[in-house]
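Backbone-to-sequence.
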């Protein structure tokens, strides 16, 4: 069976046994800040297991995309040397949400393996939880397994092997693993399937609470089961990797399986190309932060190993086509996003080449220093600086040093890395236990049973609405909020939109229908999954109480302005794809009443001409006054019909589809105008880059756009009046003024330099410009109000004057100090300008650096300039000795 056959057979087996086949969720978890990437098949069902979310099915089966590159699930360093570890892989799984339990789960597993896939029964070994001082032995699972295998093939293992939990908190339970006995090779016994019996929820203090209904969560790695089914010792010998390895061989001129060192690099490239492709397809772009940082690290590790294989040109992007051909049937997003993926990878490959161009000379200089001082050891601090500042992978640093007979202080590098990780952890969203912004909701069955009823699509005002819960500012439940108090109010139903999909929350008011109380609503928050939303309120009159009947009223003007901007983002998205190409995908947005911001995948600035065309297309659609339609459809049907699914959004089985017929169709839960003409004027006010391969457009609609246009007109008229020219001559007049200003500035700078060269202000007086320091001339000057260019020019003039020696200059202006150190070429082997500046700059409260022949620094203590210039003499003398 091929890997595609195995995946298809698995899903078909469970479909025929009453399971809903659910599409893989993205690698970026939605609404779960505790996870960097999706790392298990059950991630998308977490709230279902906890009873916080209900679905129309109680059995499911998936082939889930999984990344394991962080926390306890971090396989990155093993990829390459290992024949079985991966950063990206597919997890086949079947799930029961309070439907069947251990008996059926075990029977399904055994039937699929032995009856459908015909695996030899005598090669299968299973394990159960043996029990400990808190959780009893899983006698039930043991008794069920005895129907299928003899007792000597039932292992009883501890919590490390047979108790599963997603994290420090959350769903967990005893589990039963299935092993296949190869009998040969490095791994004679290999785990192929884990059946988790979800029985508990673990709280922050370790307490295990029984789940509302026992459930099943299983996981079987496709790569591993494919190697077993295809009788391969290595996952990389299966059809999941062989096409990739063949293409890598074509690009590099190497053959997989001939050289152990070459094989490691080819495995790294093959694995990491899969991670790279699927992460970018799910909306992640390379960056220096968060998920983008991990992607960049994976990509650069692949590129480094590509260089080991002799590839000097970009190559990683060429592997996307192979993956689209081999895996695009199961994961169509890598075919539909192929252009974006390839362009993103190619841009990052070129960027890495630039990193090497910039960082390699610095690495070579550090290695030369280690050779010169005979330590032959590159300091860990220097290695970390190259890694952190210039993006050079540690392995690349280590390899390059080794070619020169040097090594790297790995322990010091690791210490520097640990400091950075500790800082990052302190600043990240990862926390353990209860978050400070959680609501205390107790076990109120009335609140838990209501659900989140949003009725704001059809109305912005609802009457006769019960108050079901009130929380104070500390998010603790209270019976009432008195006049002047702030807190949160939960309603049985609401017209107020809760921030999602980039659209900000509504504002408005809540009015008691009997008691006369009134509160201003200035935002909304999520109280908990499956619970009514919390209205953030300030009580302005009377007191709001639980069980009050109220009228909830959204601010109509603010909602209308927000709707205009939201529909405009849909028109903008479609226009961007028309003008820039189908690779454009949304990478983030903000929809507020006063403006809209739209981030999108694109690899170069939008030109003025493109911007005009985009703006024109959007306004043409507005003038058509097309009716905006909304309908609820199945997610699968909507996407098949061409609806755009947006990065970072969590979609259920049913989705809301918002369409401007003939122009735009997107999955969207936001609020929109009735017809495009309601938007009014649309103007783009800014375009910029926010990350590698991500651009941002900011725009205005309606009266905001009109106000902006009128302000622009007023500014233009003011400029024309000030220049005293006609409108058509304004640009030419400004250009002339700009050129004249540059000319005058240059003349002033030249005059200041000539004045400084005249000897005024010399520390040594008007006589000789230089002093002798151990046989070397040292020229020092303190000047005023010279900019950087003038200071550099003065340094060059003084170097020419003394012919051989060192120049130290300090310019003071507006309470700041600018320092320049220059060394003539014949002396850079003895005195380095960068070293001089590092030692003298702290005297004036500054710092800096530079090349051996030229260095600059800044400072903030002009009163200490004379002291610094005097100290330069001893510094130069010390370096000469």
């Amino acid at each position: 069976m091929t890997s595609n056959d195995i995946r298809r057979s698995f899903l078909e087996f469970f479909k025929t046994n009453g399971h809903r086949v659910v599409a893989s969720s993205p690698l970026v978890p939605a609404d779960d800040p505790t996870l960097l990437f999706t790392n298990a098949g059950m991630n998308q069902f977490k709230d279902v297991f906890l009873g916080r979310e209900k679905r129309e099915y109680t059995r499911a089966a998936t082939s889930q995309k999984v990344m394991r590159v962080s926390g306890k699930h971090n396989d990155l360093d093993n990829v390459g040397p290992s024949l079985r570890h991966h950063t990206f892989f597919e997890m086949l799984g079947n799930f029961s949400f309070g439907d069947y339990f251990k008996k059926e789960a075990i029977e399904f597993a055994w039937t699929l393996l032995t009856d459908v896939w015909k695996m030899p029964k005598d090669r299968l070994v299973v394990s159960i939880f043996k029990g400990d001082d808190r959780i009893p032995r899983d006698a039930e699972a043991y008794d069920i397994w005895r129907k299928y295998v003899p007792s000597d093939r039932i292992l009883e293992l501890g919590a490390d092997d047979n108790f599963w939990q997603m994290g420090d908190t959350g769903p967990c339970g005893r589990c039963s693993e299935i092993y296949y006995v190869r009998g040969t090779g490095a791994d004679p016994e290999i785990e192929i399937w884990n059946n988790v019996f979800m029985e508990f929820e673990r709280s922050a203090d370790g307490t295990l609470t029984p789940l509302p209904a026992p459930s099943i969560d299983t996981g079987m790695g496709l790569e591993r089961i494919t190697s077993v089914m295809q009788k391969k010792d290595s996952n990389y010998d299966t059809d999941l990797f062989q096409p990739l390895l063949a293409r890598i061989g074509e690009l590099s001129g190497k053959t997989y399986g001939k050289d152990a060192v070459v094989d490691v690099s080819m495995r790294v490239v093959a694995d990491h190309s899969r991670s790279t492709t699927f992460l970018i397809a799910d909306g992640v772009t390379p960056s220096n932060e968060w998920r983008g940082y991990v992607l960049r690290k994976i990509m650069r590790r692949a590129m480094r190993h590509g260089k080991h294989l002799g590839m000097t040109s970009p190559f990683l992007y060429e592997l996307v086509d192979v993956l689209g051909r081999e895996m695009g049937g199961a994961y169509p997003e890598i075919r539909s996003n192929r252009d974006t993926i390839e362009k993103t990878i190619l841009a990052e490959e070129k960027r890495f080449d630039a990193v090497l161009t910039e960082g390699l000379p610095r690495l070579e200089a550090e290695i030369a220093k280690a050779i010169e001082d005979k330590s032959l050891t590159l300091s860990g601090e220097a290695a970390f600086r190259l890694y952190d500042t210039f993006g050079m992978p540690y392995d690349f640093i280590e390899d390059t040093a080794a070619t020169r007979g040097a090594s790297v202080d790995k322990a010091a590098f690791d210490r520097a890395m640990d400091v950075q990780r500790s800082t990052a952890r302190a600043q990240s969203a990862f926390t353990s236990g209860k978050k400070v912004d959680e609501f205390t909701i107790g076990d109120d069955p009335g609140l838990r049973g209501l659900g989140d009823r949003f009725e704001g699509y059809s109305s912005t005002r609802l009457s006769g609405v019960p108050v079901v819960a009130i929380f104070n500012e500390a998010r603790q439940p209270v019976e009432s909020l008195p006049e002047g108090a702030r807190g949160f109010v939960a309603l049985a139903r609401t017209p107020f939109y809760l921030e999602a999909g980039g659209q900000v929350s509504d504002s408005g008011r809540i009015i008691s229908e009997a008691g006369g109380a009134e509160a201003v609503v200035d935002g909304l928050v999520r109280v908990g999954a499956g619970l009514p939303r919390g209205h953030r309120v300030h009580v302005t009159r009377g007191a709001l109480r639980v069980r009050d009947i109220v009228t909830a009223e959204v601010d109509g003007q603010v909602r209308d302005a927000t709707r205009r901007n939201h529909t405009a983002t849909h028109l903008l998205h479609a226009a961007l794809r028309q003008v820039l190409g189908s690779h454009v995908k949304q990478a983030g947005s903000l929809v507020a009443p006063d403006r809209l911001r739209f981030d999108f995948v694109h690899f170069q600035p939008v030109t003025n001409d493109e911007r005009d065309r985009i703006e024109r297309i959007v306004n043409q659609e507005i003038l058509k006054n097309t009716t905006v339609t909304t309908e609820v459809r199945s997610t699968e049907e909507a996407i098949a019909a061409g609806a755009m699914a947006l990065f970072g959004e969590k979609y259920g089985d049913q989705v809301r589809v918002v369409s401007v017929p003939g122009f735009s169709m997107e999955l969207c839960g936001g609020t929109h105008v009735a017809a495009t003409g309601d938007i009014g004027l649309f103007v783009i006010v800014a375009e910029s880059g926010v990350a590698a391969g991500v651009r941002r457009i900011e725009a205005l609609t309606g009266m905001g756009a009109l106000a902006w246009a009128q302000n622009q007109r007023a500014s233009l008229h003011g400029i024309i009046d000030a220049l005293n020219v006609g409108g058509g001559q304004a640009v030419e007049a400004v250009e002339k003024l700009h050129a004249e200003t540059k000319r005058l500035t240059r003349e002033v700078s030249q005059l200041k330099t000539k004045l400084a060269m005249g000897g005024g202000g010399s520390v040594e007086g008007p006589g000789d410009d230089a002093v002798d320091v151990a046989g070397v001339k040292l020229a020092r000057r303190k000047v005023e109000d010279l900019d950087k260019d003038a200071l550099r020019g003065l340094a060059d003039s003084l170097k020419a004057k003394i012919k051989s020696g060192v120049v130290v200059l300090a310019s003071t202006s507006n309470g700041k100090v600018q320092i320049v150190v220059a060394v003539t070429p014949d002396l850079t082997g003895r005195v380095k300008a960068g070293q001089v500046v590092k030692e003298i700059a702290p005297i004036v409260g500054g710092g800096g650096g530079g090349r051996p022949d030229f260095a600059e620094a800044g400072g903030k203590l002009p009163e200490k300039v004379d002291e610094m210039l005097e100290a330069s003499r001893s510094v130069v003398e010390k370096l000469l000795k």
